[in-house]
User: Fold this.
Amino acid sequence: MEEERLSIYRVSRSIKRKENSLYNALRSIYEDSIFIGEISQLWPQLPLLANLRCGFWYSPNFHSTCYFKSTDGHTNNCSFNTSRLNFHVALLAGQKGGCVIVDSTRRGKRFPDSMSRTIPIWTCVLNRAIFNYLNRIGERDSGFDSDSNIYNRNGENTSHISHDWDCSLHLPLWVSTTEKAVIEDRLEEWTKELEASGADIASLVFSLKKPLRPLWISQKTVIWLNEVPDCDSWDFTPIILVSASSSTGTFQIRTTSEFSWKYIPGAGDDEESWARGLSPKVFWNHAYELINSGPDLCNQKVATIVEKHRVYCAHRGQNAPQVTVKLSKSASTDHHSEQERLLYSDISNISNMNSAQEHCIISWLGLTNIAVGKAEFGTNVPKVDCILNCHPELASACLPNAIAYLHLPIVSSKLDRFSLLTNLPSAFNFAKLNLSKGKSLLVCCHDGEDISICVCLAILTSLFNDEGAFDDGKSFNETCITKWEMRRRLVFICKYAVNARPSRGNLKQVFSFLSGGRVSSVSSEALILLM
Assistant:
């Protein structure tokens, strides 16, 4: 009986593996990307943004990215997180007249919680903060002349804007009235948190001509192509939320002239479990080849492509994981029908994803003399005096412009819960020694989004005052650091490093370091000085 149960378990696991195969995932992503392309063409003037990380798979032509988490919008457990303000999205929408955000979700839902609640809450809180800001300016200037009026970046007077500025909460119809009432009860609290965080609300006032408002589009949405409204005709700045995947509750078997495959809703989610080292960028560079390889050869082609990319990165001093893939025993011909070639012809014309992303620009944190970026670009950055490399692997130290270099192999909190905390004292000492001499410092890690951000957070909190001026730790030693104060500093960093995505585990380690005592001595043994 036990063997029979085990056999049933193995069969079910085998079926699940086949349904969630690599080819099924990539083919599903490509099919959904056609829909995304069609929607983006309806409003070509609006920038297309990917909500990380799932949404990044669904187009090769994203203008930028954003980070709205579904965990902030779970049913009856919604929140507004000042660590993920995504101000760059609001500023971009103000400049362009709106934006389109792409995400996806697993079967059973039309939209992920990030689109159902997180983003609607975000737009409402930002609208309310702008409204409050304008009212405060109006009250302050009520006794003065008209010279105190506010003008946006287009030179238009915005002093009248507060009278009809929409601060309502706009949720989709599938969110219940009861839940909406619960969310509305907390809007004032979240607005005060945003205002107290030190966020640059004034920049939103000068950028946005009309209040933000979300709109929802899925594959079930009916759009009359001859009646698509112009964004300028709306009395709000549209944040168009596009759910890439079909909301079918079951796997759909689809066929072409040569292959049959199963459609997976939200296939781009949880890429660690299926992508085998393939990234969205690499996928779109080889999409024609992979889609037409078929289910039997797909794994082998992915393994080859990933390995070539790894070698390419290694030659450039970058890092890419080495992935081992079990190849399928069966094979398939490489013949393709003319109809399929026409279907995928647009892939062959896709150039590499934004070259700007390939040659990533570092982010300078205001006037602090500190920059943050990716480790592989740290060796080519001009006008940087010192480099603090937090990449787990040591990058080549060919630094003609840098006079000091320190490598701290810090790994993710998922791999080591204390890796960052262990290395922060050395990072602090290195930063203090060089910043006190007026040197510029670049802090880099493997992606420039997590570990390097947390190291910068520790440095800014412990060595700089509230105005962002270096004071050698004087203000830090005179105050008791709190999580709220640390969050205010993180908001300051995110203003300049818009792709910052610090993990909760690493933020906890930063707080432990900051609240654990005062570090005043410099350990010269920890430094590697390149004169």
Observations:
- Confidence is low (pLDDT under 50) at residues 143-148, 322-360, 518-531.
